[in-house]
Amino acid sequence: MGTIKKGILGGFSGKVGNVVGASWKSIAYIRSLPSTVRNPRTEKQRMQRSKFSLVAKFVKTILPVIRVGFKQSAGPRNSAFSAAVSYNIHHAMKGTYPGFGIDYPKVAVARGALYIANRMTAAPEAGSLNFVWDTGVINNASEATEMMGLLERTVAHTELLQLQRVEDHRRITGLEKMVEQELAWRKDGDYHYCEVEDCRLRKPPMGTFKREHHG
């Protein structure tokens, strides 16, 4: 689009061929007619739309986590949601069209300079889920006292999203009081988001967290 500085003929309004003239806030401008928008729905387009729909639906269910985890990497001109969708489309997809699926071990809910927990495992045990991880600091950007986020998804269930916060939990003290707060988020899987405080001084150098199953 171009603007017109009024000369001897001034600006013009209306359409001449494929050029349109108009004014906005006393500024005369010209632009070309838009090209015809077509939607051929090629196989490549259908594949991309299928991926986007699948990942966007998943990301929306954990949006409060995404807004924190992707805030820094999104930058000033992008949203955390868009950044998370873009990353996971490129790194956390499996299968072929039309049977795409999310490769959950590769899903990222946060991006930044910090490393994820090292050697983390999760195992069910008598109605609970035990998380175990190495408490060692991996690089100089990490601190031993950083908060650690745990996001659990049980694909087989369709229940309300729940937020679980462990109050004053340190790796050196073991399991402390756990407070559950039910949130009316999207019904898409059984999610649990937990935060525990890292402690570098723990011996042996393994952290543990047990999430009791309720209901």
Describe the structure.
The structure is a single chain. The chain is α+β, with helices and mostly antiparallel strands and 215 residues long. The protein has three domains: 2-32, no CATH class; 43-106, no CATH class; 118-212, no CATH class. The chain contains four helices and 13 strands. It has helices at 43-61, 63-69, 71-74, 80-91; strands at residues 2-4, 14-16, 19-24, 27-32, 93-94, 101-102, 118-125, 128-134, 147-154, 162-166, 178-182, 190-197, 206-212. The strands form four sheets. The protein has a four-stranded antiparallel sheet with strand order 1-4-3-2, with no helix packed on it. A four-stranded mixed sheet has the order 9-12-10-11, with no helix packed on it. Strands 7-8-13 form a three-stranded antiparallel sheet, with no helix packed on it. β2 and β3 form a beta hairpin. The longest helix has 19 residues, at 43-61. It is elongated, with a radius of gyration of 25 Å.
List keywords for this structure.
four-stranded antiparallel β-sheet; alpha+beta; 3 domains; 33% strand; four-stranded mixed β-sheet; 215 residues
- Counted up, domains total 3
In terms of structural class, how would the helical and strand content be classed?
alpha+beta
Distance linking N and C termini: 61 Å
What is the overall pLDDT average?
66
How do the helices and strands follow one another from N- to C-terminus? EEEEHHHHEEEEEEEEE
* Residues in helices, as a percent range: 10-25%
Number of distinct beta strands: 13
Portion in strands: 25-35%
Query: Mind describing the biggest β-sheet?
Result: 4 strands, antiparallel
Strand order of the largest sheet: 1-4-3-2
The Rg value, from CA coordinates, equals: 25 Å
**Large-scale geometry:** elongated
